Amino acid sequence: MLLFINACVRSCSRTKRLADRLLTELGGADKELKLGEIKFPVTDESYLRMRDRLIAGGEFCHEALKYAREFAAADTIVIAAPYWDLSFPAQLKEYIEKICVIGVTFGYTEDGQRIGLCKAKRLYYVTTSGGRIESEEFGFGYIKYLAQSFYGIEECVQFRAEGLDLIGADAEAILKKAEKEITEHFKR
Ligand SMILES: Cc1cc2nc3c(=O)[nH]c(=O)nc-3n(C[C@H](O)[C@H](O)[C@H](O)COP(=O)(O)O)c2cc1C
Q: pTM value?
């Protein structure tokens, strides 16, 4: 099952354009989550208490944990997110808060070692930026660290097109080059 997590906001999203090329290479998505259309419950104290109760009671089939279950069961993950404020849109962070569930996406061994519980071997992250991607720490880097150290998804690949809004930039040429890079990646 290929899970496509779409955090693109604009109808003319260039990030979505690159993601579409990637999805074509991967044979299409089985499930798309358009994060902008999902009203996630606020992660407030009552939500946390409810979640703790579900986890303590082993009620992992509860509706509130469905995003975590779906993420854990996917074979391949594709995340598309524009580079916003050195990071990504807040909806993606909201989604992450919903899928980081102990006992579903990650767990701990008896001696306290964290182990990933996700099935996916590979996660692809697609992004585009107006300027240069100054730091990956809060965007792809953060997702990659979570994937590898929490979820147990070892291989994380980023495709990106940057500098699209810089003065004099040929955005179309930059996007075409990034699309070509995606295609080339799968010829290897
Ligand atoms: C709210 C917002 C924040 C942004 N922050 C950055 C930024 O920190 N650095 C940057 O280079 N571009 C930034 N941009 C520009 C976008 O990264 C760029 O236009 C990107 O290609 C948009 O992707 P999209 O076409 O998929 O919507 C920002 C754009 C928006 C709307």
A: 0.98
